[in-house]
Each structure stands twice: as C-alpha cells, then as structure tokens.
Amino acid sequence: MGREKFLPHTKTDYLRKALKKEKDPKARTKLVACIHKKEGKTNVEIADILKVPRSTVGYWLSNISRGGIRRRRAIKRKGAACKLNKEQRKQLVRNMMAGSGKFGLGAGTWTVPLVARHIKKEFGVDYDLHSVWELIRRLGFSYKAPRPANPKRAGPKEREEFKKKAARLAARYKKAGRDSFAVDEMHLGKQGRVHKDWLLRHGRPIAPVSPNRSRISIIGAIGPGGKSFFKTYETANSENMADFLAALHKKFDRPIVFMDNASYHGEKVLEEVSRITGDEVVAVYFPKYTPELNPTETQWVAIRRYLANNMYDSIDDACDALMDGLKNKLIRIVKLHDYLLPS
Q1: Whole domain around residue 47: which residue ranges?
Q2: Do 258 and 248 meet the contact criterion of CB atoms below 8 Å apart?
Q3: Are residues 60 and 126 in the same domain?
Q4: Spans in the chain with pLDDT lower than 70
C-alpha cells in the first residue's frame, strides 16, 4: 500500500487535528501510524518508530484503509444471544440460590456440569460447559466457599445492637482515659501451617510436617493506634487468662476488654483479675458465635501467615520466632474495628 493509495481523500492535517482531540491511547497510536504512512514511511519504519510488530502496523493500516479513520477505535461486537430468556434467567438464579439438593441432583453444591444438566431438565436448552460457566458469571455468581457459621450464632439485629453498644462504651471510657482492647487466644504448634508463597513456576518445594501435636496457647489483645499485647502459655485456661488480663491491665492503665463467651472468660476470671490488680475490670462480651466481630481473629491470620511453611525444632523455637516477629514489627498488627473506637 503506497503513500498515494492510503486514505487518498484524507489530508495529513486532518489526521493531526484528530490526533489532538483523541484521548484513547491505542487510537492515538494508530493515528500516529497513519500520519507516518501519509508521510511516505514504510510499515517496517513505522513499526520501528512505534516499537510494535510489523504485522500489527499492517493490520491497523489495512483496517483504516478499508473503513476510514473511524476504525482507529475497536468495534464492540455483540456476542451470541442468550439461549434463555429473561424470565428463565431469573428462575435459574432463584434455583441456584435455593441449592442443588432441592432439585434431586444428589449433590450439595452446584458444579458447571450440574448446572448444565439442570438447564436441560428445567428449560430444555442445551449448553456446552464453557457457555454455562460464562452464563453463571453473567448472572452474578462467583466460585467461592461460604463462610462457616454456627447455627446458634446471634442474628443480624443482635449484632447491630452490639456494635452500637460497643461504640457508646468505647466513647464513654475513652473520656475517662481508658482504651478499648479486643482479646482472644489461639494455639501454636512447632509446625507452621502450609500456605501459598512466591515460588518458581517449575517444581514444587516440600514443607515438612511433624506428627508431634504438642502446642502452646497465645493470648493476645489488639488496641487503638497499633497498640498490642501478647503472652504465651502452656494452655488457655481461667488461671492463665486472669494472669494475662492482669498484665494487660497494668501495661495499658485499666483498659476495657472485649472478649468472646469462652468458659474461661467468665465472672470468676474477672474477679481474680480485680483481686490481683485491686481495681475493677470492665469486660464486654461479643454476641455468641460471632468471630467476625473480633479483630483479633484477623490478627491470628497474620501470625499464621508469618510462621507458615516452617518446621521448628521445638515449641520454644516457634514461640521465639513469633515474639521476634512481633518485636521487630515483621508481623502486621491489625486495626480495631470502627465500632470499638470512640467517634
């Protein structure tokens, strides 16, 4: 395609004006290619200037030569029409939300083949598996695991009421100079959990696993402004919880603590802490079976991630690695949820 044959009825000045107005980066590049072509450069020279393959330049110029400079922008093509009508798609959404078990498919989860079979049975329409996958995504579904929840967990209304109550208490005690801390405990073994990591594509490293199930307990508290406090114990019980709360009480000047409803978080523990410290301890309990309300649960995720894929010689070594990570700020300290912070 020579200089005279390329866009014979379009002047170079017109292309330059179009370039100034164009905002799409790819369309601008195509216009630059057109200007170079009008100036007599070859496709090889244009490709070298724009740092793109010669075949790409040829494809751009060929399209624009046939369709004009409006072809500088990609033409959006409509896909094939959906085989299910609007009402059928709505019914499919309702069916999938109800669960596969209600349709006699003998499974507890929806899979792509099961959805295809269900569409064939309910609507008499054949879909290949790739099209079913695309259809499911267009209907607003994504492939993910549900969050497990105890059937006895507090309802939405109770959880919202707790958040409002927690915010009021945090504000009231903040005026008295007392910060809010979320408290929880986790167990740590000498075998770190296996976790995803940055690994070379080829090959797969082996993480050693110990049959020894010995472990220790970590009790932690998360406060405002990155404040935190952690201690390790042989086990989590009322005696050790009382010791931890007393130490927390001393370190952070009578904080108010938010805890779950574990058996060793009860009134006897608070009475023991009050006896040790000589001061009343204020404790607020999260609604039953609502770990998502406690930010310390997220802290354990960060700790497990830090210790992952390691095999320690002993529990003491695992504990030392944990404390070293916390001391040197290698482990991220999570933030308190907003409803535990005074407004």
Answers
A1: 12-72
A2: no
A3: no
A4: 1-4, 75-80, 105-107, 209-213, 343
